[in-house]
Amino acid sequence: MRDMSDSSAYARAGVDTSRAEQAVAGLVDVLRRIDLGRPSRAVLGSGHYANVLRLDDRTGIALSTDGVGTKVIVAEQLGRFDTVGIDCIAMNVNDLICVGAEPIAVLDYVAVEEAEPEMLRQIAEGLRAGAEQAGVEIPGGELAQLPELIRGHPSPRGFDLVGACFGTVALDAIVTGARVEPGDAVIGLPSGGVHSNGLTLARRALTELDERPPELDGRSVGEVLLEPTVIYVRAVLDLLASAVDVRGLAHITSGGLLNLLRLEAEVGYAIDSPLPRLPIFDLVAERSRAQEAELLEVFNMGCGFCCVVPADQTDAAVELLDSHHPGTAVIGRATGDAGVVELPGSGLVSRGGAGFQAR
Known about the structure:
This protein is an alpha+beta fold. It has eleven helices and 13 strands.
C-alpha cells in the first residue's frame, strides 16, 4: 500500500488525480494509434471537452460522454433518484457546447444491481427534466442488470449512470479557444452547488446527510449535495447566435478554473474577481484537511462555466448570459503569460498546468 500521509485530502478520500492523469495519458496514447485504413474524420486532438467528426466539407458531428460519478452514492443513501438524471444530461451537454456545437441527442446507460421499477422511474424523470432543459432528445439507451458488479449504498439500491451526447456544428464555427487574446474578458456563470465533481471528497467531509448545518440555511447536507448540475446550453447557444465574438468556452468541472487551460490559445488567465463562493464549499473546507489550493483544483467553487469574449463586448455578453443565469459577471481576463492561471485574491498561481501554489 502506498504511503498517503503527505497526500492530498482528495487522495486520502480515495481519488489520486495525478495517478489518474498518468493512466489517461497512457490510454489516449494507445487509442490515437488506431489503424483505420483511411484518414481520420476527427477535427480536434485530445484534450478538448468534446471532439468533432467531419461529415462533409461543411458539417461536423460533435461527441462527448460522461457520467454522474459518486453522486449516485448520495442518491442511494437518501433513496432519492429524481435529480441525478439531470446531472447525467448536464455533464454531457455542457461539455459539448464548449466546441460551439448544438446538442441534439443523448443516449443513456444505466447499470443497476436490481431493476427496481420505482428507482428507474425516478432516474427517468431526471433524464427527462435534463433533456427538456437542454433541448435534446433521448432516442435510446441501455439498461444492464449487474448484481455481481454493482453494489449499492445500501444494497440493492446500487446503480451507475452514464451518457453520450451528439450534436452538430459548422466546421467553420468550431470554438477551440485558439482565438483568445491577452486582454479578453473571462465571464463566469454561477454554479448551483457541487455539481458532479468532487463528491468523493465532499462525502468524506460531510458524513451525516440528514444534518442541517446553519451554513446551509435550513437545507440538509444531502439535499445540497444532490442539487443538480446547472445546464448552460440555452444561454451559450444564444450567445453563439448573437453578435458577440465568442472566443472560448469552458465547462468548470474537476480541475476548477484550471479548465481554462484546455482552450488552445497560448495565453494565461488572471481571475481577480471570482464569483461568490457557495457555503457548501466553506463547509467542506472546514471539516476536511483540504487546503485552499486543493479545493480550487477539485471543485467549481461557485463558477460552473466560463465564456471568453473581447473586452469591448463584455457588457452585451454579460447582459445576455445573466438573463439565463443571474449572477453572471466578469471574473478576470486573459493574459500574455502562457499556461499561467493566477488567483490574486488567494495569493495562488498555477504554471504549466500544475496545481496551484503560493505566489
